[in-house]
C-alpha cells in the first residue's frame, strides 16, 4: 500500500515543480501568441491562468495530497473498523470485515476538487458546480452507510449512491459539454470529464465485490481501489494556450480573451445557463 502513497507524493512534487503557472500578459500581442501556441501540450495543472492564479495547480495538488494522507493511514492499518457481514466466505471465525472509512473521507474531500476542476473547464455556473458536488457527496455518504450496515439493507444505500452517480454523470456529460461548446473547450473537457465518468463505473464493481458481497480479500480490495484512486487524479493533456482564468473564477476560451482584456470580465459565465 505504501507504493500508492509514494506515487501520489511523487505526482504532487512533479506537478508543483514542473508546471509553475505564468502570469498572462494583458496585451493583444500576448493573446495572439497564445493562439499561435495552441498546439503546445501540457497537463490539466498547466493551464495558463490570468493574473498568476494557479487554480488547477491548487485543486489537483490538494486532491493528491489528501490521497497521500489517506493511503498512509491505511498502510498504517488505521482508519478502519470491523463490521459483521451477513454474507460469509472463507474461514473467518469472527465473520467480520475491515471497512476503511478513511477511504470515504478521502473521496468526500478529494473528489469535489476534481469535479470542480473539470466543470470550471466547461464554464458552467457555480450553482451547477455546487449541485454536482452535492450529488457526489450523497453518493459517497450513501456507500459509507452501506459499508457500515451489517445486513442486506446495505444494498439499498448502494442503490441510492448509484442513482446519485448517474445524475452526476448526466450533469458532467450533458450540461458540462453543452457549456464547454460555448467557450470552445469541449474537446478537452470531454476527454477529461469522459475519462473520469467512465472510470467511476469501476467503483460500483469494486464496492460490490468488497464491502457489498464480501468476495474480495482486503488485499484485493486495496489493490483494486488503489489503482482506481491513482487514475482518478489524472494527468491529461490539452492545449493550455486556449484557456485563461479570469478574476471572477471562470475559464475563458480564445473567443473571450478580447472582451476580457477590454475590461469585460465575464469570462466563461454563460448568461441564462444551467
Enter the CATH topology name: Rhopdopsin 7-helix transmembrane proteins
- Could you estimate the helical fraction of the residues in percent? 55-70%
- Radius of gyration, in angstroms, nearest whole number: 21 Å
What class, by secondary structure content? mainly alpha
- The share of residues in extended strands comes to under 5%
Count the domains. Answer: 1
CATH architecture grouping: Up-down Bundle
**What is the overall shape?**
globular
**What string gives the helices and strands in order?**
HHHEEHHHHHHEEH
Mean pLDDT: 75
CATH homologous group name: Rhodopsin 7-helix transmembrane proteins
Strand order of the largest sheet: 1-2
Q: What kind of assembly state do the chains in view correspond to?
A: single chain
Report the CATH C-level class. Answer: Mainly Alpha
Residue windows where pLDDT falls under 50 for at least 5 positions: 18-52, 236-242, 253-274
Count of DSSP H/I helices? 10
Q: Describe the largest sheet.
A: 2 strands, antiparallel
Q: In whole angstroms, how far apart are the ends?
A: 41 Å
The total of beta strands comes to 4
Family: Belongs to the archaeal/bacterial/fungal opsin family.
Keywords: Membrane, Transmembrane, Transmembrane helix
Transmembrane segments: 55-74, 104-135, 155-177, 189-210
Subcellular location: Membrane
List the topology elements:
Elements: H1 2-18, H2 28-36, H3 55-75, E1 81-84, E2 96-99, H4 101-122, H5 126-148, H6 154-182, H7 186-200, H8 202-212, H9 218-232, E3 244-245, E4 251-252, H10 257-261
Antiparallel strand pairs: 1-2, 3-4
Amino acid at each position: 500500500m505504501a507504493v500508492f502513497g509514494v506515487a501520489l507524493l511523487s505526482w504532487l512534487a512533479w506537478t508543483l515543480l514542473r508546471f509553475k503557472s505564468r502570469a498572462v500578459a494583458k496585451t493583444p500581442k500576448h493573446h495572439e501568441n497564445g493562439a499561435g501556441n495552441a498546439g503546445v501540450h501540457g497537463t490539466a495543472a498547466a493551464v495558463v491562468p490570468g493574473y498568476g492564479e494557479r487554480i488547477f495547480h491548487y485543486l489537483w495538488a490538494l486532491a493528491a495530497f489528501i490521497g497521500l494522507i489517506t493511503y498512509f493511514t491505511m498502510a498504517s492499518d488505521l482508519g478502519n473498523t470491523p463490521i459483521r457481514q451477513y454474507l460469509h466466505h472463507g474461514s473467518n471465525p469472527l465473520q467480520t470485515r475491515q471497512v476503511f472509512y478513511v477511504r470515504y473521507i478521502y473521496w468526500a474531500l478529494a473528489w469535489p476538487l476534481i469535479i470542480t476542476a473539470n466543470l470550471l473547464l466547461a464554464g458552467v455556473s457555480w450553482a451547477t458546480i455546487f449541485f454536482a458536488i452535492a450529488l457526489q457527496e450523497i453518493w459517497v455518504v450513501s456507500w459509507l452507510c452501506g459499508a457500515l450496515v451489517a445486513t442486506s439493507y446495505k444494498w439499498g444505500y448502494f442503490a441510492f449512491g448509484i442513482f446519485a452517480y448517474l445524475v452526476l454523470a448526466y450533469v458532467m456529460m450533458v450540461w458540462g459539454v453543452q457549456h464547454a461548446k460555448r467557450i470552445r473547450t469541449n474537446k478537452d473537457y470531454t476527454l477529461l470529464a469522459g475519462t473520469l465518468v467512465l472510470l467511476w463505473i469501476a467503483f460500483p464493481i469494486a464496492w460490490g465485490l468488497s464491502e457489498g458481497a464480501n468476495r474480495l480479500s482486503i488485499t484485493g480490495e486495496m489493490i483494486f481501489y488503489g489503482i482506481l484512486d491513482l487514475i482518478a487524479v489524472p494527468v491529461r493533456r490539452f492545449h493550455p494556450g486556449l484557456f485563461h482564468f479570469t478574476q471572477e473564477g471562470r475559464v475563458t476560451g480564445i473567443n473571450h480573451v478580447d472582451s476580457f482584456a477590454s475590461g469585460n470580465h465575464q469570462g466563461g459565465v454563460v448568461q441564462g445557463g444551467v
